[in-house]
Amino acid sequence: MRAFKVFGLLMVVVMVLSACAPAAAPAAGGAAAGGEIKIAILAPLSGPVPTFGLSTKEGATLAVKEWNDKGGVLGKKIVAIVEDSQCTPDPAVNAANKVINQDKVKYIVGEVCSKASIPVSEIANEKKVVQISGTSTNPSVVRDAAGKVKPFTFVACFNDDTQGKVIAKFAKENIKAKTAFIMLDQANDYVKGLAEYFEKYFTADGGTIVGKETYTSKDTDFSTVLAKIAEAKPDVVVLPDYYNIVNLVTKQAKEKGITAPFIGGDGWDSPDLDPKAADGGFFTNHYSPTEDREKVKTFVKNYGEAYKNDKGEPKTPDALAALAYDATNILIEAISKAGEDDATKVADTIAKGKFEAVSGSITFDEFHTPIKPVTVIAVKDGKVTFNSQVMP
Amino acid sequence: MQNTLVEQNSPPVDLKPRMSLAWVGKAFLIALSLLIVYLLGTNLAKNPSLFANIILSGLQMGFVYAMIALGYTMVYGIVKLINFAHGDVFMVGAFVSYYLVYRFNFQNWPALFFPDMPPMVVVVIGTISVIIIAMIVCVLLATTIERVAYKPLRNAPRIAALITAIGVSFFLEFFGALNFVFSPRFIPYTRPFEVVAWYIDGSGIHSIVAGTQPPANAITFSNIFLIIMIVSILVQIFLQFLVKQTKMGIAMRAVSYDKPTARLMGINVDQVISFTFAIGAAFAGLGGVLYAIAYSSINTQMGILPGLKAFVAAVLGGIGSIPGAFVGALIMGQAEALTMGFISTPMRDAVAFAILIIVLLVRPTGIFGEPENEKA
Q: Which chain B residue has the Cα nearest residue A275?
C-alpha cells in the first residue's frame, strides 16, 4: 500500500515537471526536421506489465530498423522515439503531449493497455496525429462517447467481441460441443466481456449453457465449482481468464477427473502457462510463432537474431511483439503508399488499405478495427502449438 | 510513553446489547440458522454426492486453516498479540519449498545417496525433508521477527505491537514481491510428488485414470486431502501433548496466566515467548507447503486471505484455546465451501468475515473461550 503512495507522489512530481514543458512550446503542426520521419512508440516499460512494454518496444523498433535497412520511407530515415507510458493514463498522456509538442511527431504507435490508449487517442485526434495501437482490445479506443469512429486512431488487433465469437465457433465446429459450462471472474471486465460474447454466439448457434459459475481473482480453491462441472458434464468448459487462474483451475480439474476441454482467450498467452495442466485445452490468440507461414517464419527468425534472452538464446516473439511489429509496419507502409508525410492522408490510406501482416492479412472495418482471421492455439503434450485460423 | 491515548488496562467494553433490544438479535440469529438448515437440507436431498464433494473440499480447507490458526491462538494466548505477520510466514514456507523442489530438485536427494532405495520411499523421505527445511526457515524468520519487531515493544501499549505486526506483514509481502526476492508473479508450483485421486461410488473405491470421467454420483478425493487431514490431526495431538504434558507446556501456561509471577517462579519468560512464536511458525510453514501442494500456485500475497480466515477461525473457536482453533478452522472451512457450493463463490469471503462480526457481537470469547477474568 505504502509503496503505491510513494509511487503516486513520484508520479505527481513527474507530471508537474512534464506539464510545464509543453506549455512553453509552440502549438503542434510544424514540419518534421529535414530528412527524417519521426515515429513515437509509447510502451509500458515500467508499471504493472513491464514484459508487455519490452515486447512492444522490441517489435516496433525491429520494424523501424528493417525499413531503414531498406532505405527508409519516402527517401527519409525513420527515427523511433520510445517513451515509457506505464500502462497508466497520466504518464501516457504526458508522454503523448511530449512527443507531439516537443518532438513534433505525426505518428504514434501505442499504448498497449486500453485504459492508457483511450486518453492518448483523445489527444491524437485533437492534434491530428495518427495513432495505431497494437493490442488495445477495448472498443472505446477507436470509438468516441457517441459511438462514432475516431478518425486518427487505429488498432492492429481484433476486439473481444470477435474473440468471443471465434471461441464459440471453434467450440461448435472443431470440438463439436453442444453444451458448455462458463467460469468467470465477475470483477474483471475482460473476462466478463469474453464470457458474455461467447454465450451470445454459442446460444445463438443452438448451443446450451449448462452452468455458469463465478469466482474471484484471489481464489485458489476451485473444488466446489469443479464439483459442479463434474456433475453437469459439459462438452466444453469456457475459462476466458489470465494464465495464472487457468493454471490453477485446469490442474485441479484433472484431479477431479474432468475430461471436458478448457477453452479461453488471449489471456492464456504467457510463458508462465502450465502446459501440462492445461493439456487438451485451446485458446484464441493474435498469432502463433509456430504457424507455418512465410511472414511469420521470417519475423520469428529476424526477431530471434535481433534480441536474445538472459541465456543468450534467440527470443521467441510473443503476441505483443508481433502486434507492435504489425502496427508499426502498417503505419510505415501507409506513409509509403500515401506518398506524402501528411497525417490526414496517412490515416485515410490505413483505413482503405490492405496489409499483409504477421498476424494475418488485414483490412480495416468502419471502426478502424482489423478484419482478420483469429489464431486458435492448442495445448497438447506439454507444448503450445498452432491449431488453426478461424475467420470470425 | 505512559500518557498514550490507549491505556493498557482500560476496562473491557460492554459488548452485550441492552436487554430491551436483545430479543431482536436473538430472533435474527434463530431465523438465520433456520435458513441455513433449510438451505443445507434441500441441497443435501437434491444431490447427495455433490453435497459430499463440497463437504470434503471444505474439510481440506479447514484442516489447512487449523494449522495456521494454531499459531494465532498460541501467540495470542501468551503475549496477547494478534500476529498479523503469521499469514506471511505461511507464504514464506510455501516459497521455500518451491525453491527446494523446483530449483534444486531437493525431494530426490535420497536417490542420490542411496540409489537402491525404492522410489516410493525416496518420495516420502524427500518430501518430508523439504517440509522440515521449510519449517526451519519459518522458525528462524518468526523468531527474528519476534526479536526485532515485537520484543522491544513488550511493555508498550498493546496497540503499538499490533500496528508493528501489520507493518511486518506488509514488509514481508512487498519485500517478497521484489523481482530479486520472490517476484510478484503467480508461479505454478511444482509438486514434489504426483497427485493420485480416487472416487467412491456404489461399488467401492476406484482410482481416477487420466482421460476418463468418473460416474455422475461419485465422490472424489486425493492423496493430498488424506495427507493434509492426517498431518493436521497429528499437529493437534502433538500440541495437546506439548501443552499438557511437558515442562515447556507448563511454562507456557504459566506465562499465559501471569507473566510477572511466572518470572518470579524462575521461568525464562522471553524464552517461552520465543518458543511459542517458533512453534506457531513451524506449523504455519508446514501448512504453507501443504497448501501450495494442494492448490499448486504461489504468489507473495497468498498468505493474506488464509491468514485472515485462520484468524477468524481462532476467534470463533475462542482465541487462546488450542482445541478451539481446530474446531473453529473446520467450521470456517465448511462455511466457505458450503457458501461457494450453494450460494455463490464471491460471497465466501463476505460470509467468512460476517462470522467474525457475529461471533464478536454474540459471544466475543468464542466457542471454547472462557469469560475473561481480569487479572493484574
A: B188
Query: With an 8 Å Cβ cutoff, is A251 touching chain B?
Result: yes
A228-237, B89-98, B118-127, B172-181: which is most confident:
B89-98
Residue type, B22: A
* Contacting B residues, span 21-40, partner chain A, CB-CB under 8 Å: none
Are residues A210 and A139 both part of a single domain? no
If 0-12 CB within 10 Å is exposed, 13-18 middle and 19+ buried, where does residue A349 land?
buried
Residue type, B272: V
The answer, for B131 touching chain A at a CB cutoff of 8 Å, is no
Interface test with B, best of A6, A225, A243, A255 (most B CBs within 10 A): A255
- Tell whether B212 lies on the interface with A, counting CB pairs under 8 A: yes
* Euclidean distance between CA atoms A188 and A273, whole angstroms: 19
A2 to chain B: which residues are within 8 Å by CB? 170, 174
Which among A285, A300, A334 is the end of a domain? Answer: A285
Q: How many domains does chain A have?
A: 2
**Shared-domain flag, residues A149 and A190:** no
> Within this chain, do residues A262 and A327 fall inside the same structural domain, yes or no?
no
Nearest CA distance, B214 vs chain A (angstrom): 6
**Predicted ipTM of the assembly:** 0.73
The B residues from 168 to 207 touching A (CB cutoff 8 Å) are 170, 174, 185-188, 195, 197, 199
- C-alpha distance from A188 to closest chain B C-alpha (Å): 13
Alpha-carbon gap, residue B74 to B71, rounded angstroms: 5
Contact predicate A178/A203, CB 8 Å: no
- Of the partner residues B212, B216, B291, the one whose CB lies closest to the CB of residue A231: B216
Rounded to a whole number of angstroms, the distance from the CA of A214 to the nearest CA of chain B is 6
Closest by Cβ to A231, choosing from B47, B295, B301: B47
Q: Are strands A360-364 and A354-357 parallel, antiparallel or unpaired?
A: antiparallel
Q: Per-residue confidence at B14, pLDDT binned at 50, 70, 90?
A: low
**Is residue A281 a part of any domain in this protein?**
yes
- The single-letter code of the amino acid at A190 is Y
User: Are A44 and A154 within one domain?
Assistant: yes
The beta strands (E) that lie in A26-76 are given as 36-43
The closest CB to that of A247, out of B170, B188, B220, belongs to B188
In a domain, A11, yes or no: no
| Shared-domain flag, residues A176 and A147 | no
Do A144 and A169 belong to one domain?
no
Residue in B172, B164, B111, B183 with CA at minimum distance from that of residue B137: B172
Whether A216 maps to a domain, the answer reads: yes
pLDDT at B11: 53
Is the CB of residue A269 less than 8 Å from the CB of residue A243?
yes
CB environment A105-134: b (16+ within 10 A), e (fewer): bbbbbbbbbbebbbbbbebbbebbbbbbbb
pLDDT tens across B143-174, in order?
999 999 999 998 888 889 899 999 999 999 99
**Domain CATH for A166:** 3.40.50.2300
**In terms of residue numbers, what domain contains A130?**
36-158+316-371
Q: Is residue A278 part of a domain?
A: yes
Q: Are residues A63 and A179 in the same domain?
A: no
